């Protein structure tokens, strides 16, 4: 039996994701996406291009939700949602949106906060592109696994 005094006290530490997830590639990408989206959101609030602030806010909230969903293994508990496909679509749309609003912010507005938001937006585009490339490879592997069971497996039975 374990000593109750040696166990960590419940509290704020129970909300933190496990270290294994933080060290994983997916955990690091989701953390980078959340941090970059929050920084871009703050930059757009402080800039003349405040009309672009909704996209980084939504991407920040979605990345934060997926960060905690993957960290708490909700993807294993809720099988009705196709998690890799949803994550792939989120990353593709985020990369496209960040690329387009970053070009607009850098070229149209001359204040420093807009330029900073544009530069961080280009960095976020790269991070989201890496994430959707990795997620796409996982998705293709998953679909190849599922397709090998369907037509030939039914014919032999």
Would you write up a description of this structure?
The chain is an all-alpha fold and about 160 residues long. The chain has one domain. Helix content is about 75%, strand content about 0%. The chain contains seven helices and no strands. α5 (about 85-110) runs antiparallel to α6. The longest helix is centred in the last third of the chain and has 38 residues, at about 110-150. The radius of gyration is 20 Å and the shape is globular. The chain starts with 18 loop residues before the first helix and ends with a helix. Residues about 150-155 have low confidence and may be disordered. Keywords: Membrane, Transmembrane, Transmembrane helix. It is a multi-pass membrane protein. InterPro entries: Marvel, MARVEL-CKLF_proteins.
Oligomer: single chain
State the domain count: 1
Along the chain, the helix and strand elements come as: HHHHHHH
Beta strands, count: 0
State the secondary-structure class.
Answer: mainly alpha
Features of this protein?
157 residues; mainly alpha; disordered C terminus
Task: Give a brief description.
This protein has 157 residues and is mostly helical. It has 7 helices and no strands. It comes from Prunella himalayana.
């Amino acid at each position: 039996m374990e000593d109750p005094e040696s166990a960590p006290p419940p509290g704020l530490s129970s909300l933190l994701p496990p270290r294994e997830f933080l060290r994983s590639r997916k955990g690091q990408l989701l953390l980078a996406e959340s941090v970059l989206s929050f920084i871009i959101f703050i930059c757009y609030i402080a800039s003349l291009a405040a009309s672009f602030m909704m996209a980084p806010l939504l991407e920040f909230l979605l990345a934060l939700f997926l960060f905690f969903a993957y960290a708490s293994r909700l993807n294993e508990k809720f099988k009705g949602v196709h998690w890799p496909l949803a994550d792939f679509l989120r990353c593709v749309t985020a990369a496209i949106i960040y690329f387009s609003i970053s070009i607009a912010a850098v070229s149209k507005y001359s204040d420093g906060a807009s330029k900073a938001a544009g530069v961080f937006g280009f960095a976020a585009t790269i991070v989201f592109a890496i994430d959707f490339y990795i997620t796409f490879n996982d998705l293709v592997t998953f679909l190849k696994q599922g397709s090998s069971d369907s037509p030939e497996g039914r014919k032999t039975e």
